[in-house]
Specification:
224 residues; alpha+beta; six-stranded antiparallel β-sheet; 6 strands
């Protein structure tokens, strides 16, 4: 198995994700969309790489900073009684429609100023404030999503490096074993060579001794 390729997989995945975010520059635009209170102007934004549950959780957390009470309103997240002073001195209801879109999230935010909804044409100054809120939220959500992927990729990279280190250590031990076995084999071969020479010499000695024994037997027969 090619461990270099394995190590590159999570890194490439993260670089791809970051590249997607870079190519998908976050933009906030005004659109009239149908929501729980009819069709109204809202601020729409696409959040690349983000997860639906995480975006919803983060949006609720942000709205609670504006002292809003969170609830659901026919598919919309309702932040009731939000106090956003740079938009209005009065508390307002903020509706957010959050849905999965491709590899990211589509989000539309409606600011109910009390009888009228925030729009660029009617509330130019206030619109810029709302636009900044939505934009900053989207950038933060997308960044956190990719950072989460980076964390997982780094964790996978660390595991792969540990696996590689373990295999390298195992190979080092096996190579040491092979060296020991090779030395043992070499010693055994040398011993065998020496034994063969000794056996050949013993064969000669045995042959000579056989003659001695045979001669003595012959001499013994002659005595009788």
């Amino acid at each position: 198995m090619n461990y270099v390729k394995l190590l590159l997989i999570p890194v490439v995945a993260v670089l791809f994700s970051v590249n997607v975010v870079a190519q998908s520059k976050i933009k906030v635009a005004e659109q009239s969309k149908k929501m729980s209170k009819g069709t109204n102007p809202g601020l729409t934004v696409n959040i690349p790489e983000a997860d639906l549950k995480n975006v919803e959780k983060s949006w609720k957390k942000l709205m609670k900073k504006y002292s809003a009470k969170m609830s659901n309103s026919s598919g919309d997240l309702l932040a009731q009684g939000a106090e956003i002073k740079n938009i209005s001195d009065m508390s307002m209801n903020v509706y957010a429609n959050i849905s999965k879109s491709g590899d990211g999230i589509n989000m539309i935010v409606f600011f109910d100023l009390g009888g009228t909804y925030l729009s660029q044409s009617s509330h130019a100054t206030e619109y810029k404030v709302a636009e900044k809120i939505v934009y900053n939220f989207a950038v933060k959500a997308a960044t956190e999503a990719v950072e989460g992927q980076l964390k997982e990729a780094e964790k996978a990279l660390s595991e792969l490096e540990k696996d590689r280190s373990k295999l390298e250590k195992e190979n080092e031990g096996l190579e040491n074993d092979i060296d020991k076995y090779n030395n043992s084999i070499k010693n055994a071969e040398n011993t065998i060579d020496n034994n063969v020479k000794t056996i050949n010499k013993k064969n000669e000695d045995i042959a000579n001794q056989d003659k001695v024994v045979a001669d003595i037997k012959e001499r013994l027969k002659k005595i009788k």
